[in-house]
Write a structure and sequence with these properties.
The protein has 10 helices and 9 strands. The chain has 296 residues and is of the alpha/beta class. It catalyses: L-glutaminyl-[peptide chain release factor] + S-adenosyl-L-methionine = N(5)-methyl-L-glutaminyl-[peptide chain release factor] + S-adenosyl-L-homocysteine + H(+).
Length: 296
Amino acid sequence: MSIALPTIAAVLREAAQRGLARIDAQLLLLHALGQAQRSRAWLIAHDEQPLTPAQQTAFAHLLAQRQQGVPVAYLTGRKGFFGLELSITPDVLDPRPDTETLVEWALQTLAPRTNPRVWDLGTGSGAIALAIKSQRPDAQVWASDQSASALAVARQNGQALGLQVHWLQGSWFDAAADNGQSPVQSSVQSPPLPGAGQWDVLVSNPPYIAAADPHLPALAHEPQQALVSGADGLADIRAIAQAAPEWLAPGGWLLLEHGWDQASAVAAILAQAGLRHISHRCDLAGHTRCTGGMRE
């Protein structure tokens, strides 16, 4: 007598009973079934479809890792961001939906400008730079990161999406020292890197978590160098803000993402650096997540 195989509906119920978020279980199941390109609605339409033993094993393995805190994006190797499908590895942060707030603000700032120049500092997977380029094809977009491994992921995403972003390796503005001739450059020759006083928008989601933050253990699977920034979490924001006015064109903006409780401190840092018209944007939960200032 044959043994009935569990169905899609059954394994999702079991995952819920184990405390896994429904959306996480659905994305992992699509991956285990080899249907990652499908929407979650596909699972509902096929909820009585049985899983093979191999699929059951694959799904169970994914569930176990997720319950250990591994982000879904690392398990599937994919993440949607601003309408783009990105490849994600443990070399880069898992892009958060709240970071789309930063992209939207950058696009609003760029709206009246023609052929603007944009620099994404600390690009990671390339999510911010590629999202901006996808919406503003006329923009000249550069993106830099200290990590060669992260830049390899970003460049792969740019190639897969057919979006030309110029990649630089280096820490913040030090990346300009190579003038774009980084070993992670694509075969397409980059134009000369704009110099000081020529950038319309500098945008960054830098590390902003304090070294002793109690929430860090929950982020153990993500690259710590992309998360932690000194004793108060603001060391990298200070470094970027202090150098930014030299690089910005008159009327250019520095836009930063930061922690939910850091808006006042970041605003003070930008003001001390000489930026004006300092303002904020809120994330999806209503927290003040981004702060920016303009060079007059």
